[in-house]
Design brief:
Elements: E1 3-6, E2 9-12, E3 22-28, E4 31-35, E5 50-56, H1 64-67, E6 74-76, H2 80-90, H3 92-96, H4 101-122, H5 131-147, H6 157-163, H7 168-174, H8 182-198, H9 208-214, H10 220-231, H11 235-248, H12 250-256
Helix pairs in contact: 2-4, 2-5, 4-5, 6-7, 8-10
Length: 262
């Protein structure tokens, strides 16, 4: 990923020419740094790899003079909303791969919500945010936490609630407006990640039980049943069909055919 247009925000892997209408929030060596045209980010002689989130000034619900207090300061990304935003930005390239325009816009909204909550927390005005904005930020933190802990077999709704210091009932209420509940969301993400691994040519030799374990499933039988319900086929059958399609694909055969001897 070099540059992504995510609707309300933009993301790049290197600092870009500052836009006077936007702030730049850069993830640098584990911390976040806010900059603008007047206070550009200067990484030094050997700049590290960065991920830069460009935020429209008008999209932030704070007075500019308040936000300006944070310019050129390091914002810790080891806890709270800073950690959630850093994790999100660190994996945005993988999340955005293959997404359509609407999905990219949703990722942009998520990034903006997390950035707003992060800056509000830093300015000590988090509680002043509208309840809807705080709930959205909390949901985004939960989404990020789930995405980054799919391989943990102890990732359950109860564990998610405890990690975010809320009751299990409140967690379920947060997910009420979504197509799937907490447990189904975790299971769906795990199945999607496992399916992606099963289709990877470089992982063709990895056993199904290893992939199931990698994504937090307690047993191969549990994984296989859930996979069949979700995709209408077993993991093994999916792999076999994938291989059969490649073998019978004349285009694929032409691609890998050795040239005839001269």
């Amino acid at each position: 990923m070099d540059y992504l247009d995510l609707g309300p925000v933009r993301v790049s892997t290197t600092p870009r020419t500052p836009d006077p209408e936007r702030y730049q929030l850069a993830l640098v060596t584990g911390d976040l740094v806010l900059s603008d045209t007047a206070h550009p980010y200067e990484p030094g002689a050997t700049p590290p790899r960065t991920v830069v989130l460009q935020l429209p000034r008008t999209a932030l619900p704070f007075r500019p003079e308040r936000v300006d207090r944070l310019l050129a300061q390091r914002i810790p990304a080891t806890r709270g909303t800073g950690a959630a935003l850093a994790q999100f930005l660190g994996s945005i390239g993988a999340h955005a791969h293959g997404c359509g325009e609407r999905e990219l816009a949703r990722l942009g909204s998520a990034a903006l919500g997390l950035a707003t909550a992060c800056l509000a927390e830093r300015l000590d005005v988090y509680d002043d945010l509208p309840a809807e904005a705080r709930e959205e930020a909390l949901l985004r933190q939960i989404d990020t936490y789930i995405e980054h802990n799919l391989g943990d077999p102890e990732l359950t709704p109860g564990a998610v609630a405890a990690r975010h210091h809320i009751s299990l009932r409140r967690l379920h209420l947060l997910f009420e407006g979504r197509p799937a509940g907490v447990a189904a969301t975790i299971r769906g993400h795990r199945l999607a990640a496992a399916r992606a691994d099963l289709l990877r040519p470089d992982l063709r030799g990895r056993p199904v039980h290893s992939i199931a374990s990698r994504w937090g499933f307690s047993s191969t039988a549990v994984f296989t049943r859930a996979f069949r319900r979700a995709y209408g086929t077993s993991p093994t059958e999916l792999r076999r069909k994938r291989v059969a399609r490649k073998v019978n694909d004349p285009c694929a055969q032409r691609t890998y055919r050795r040239p005839a001897p001269a």
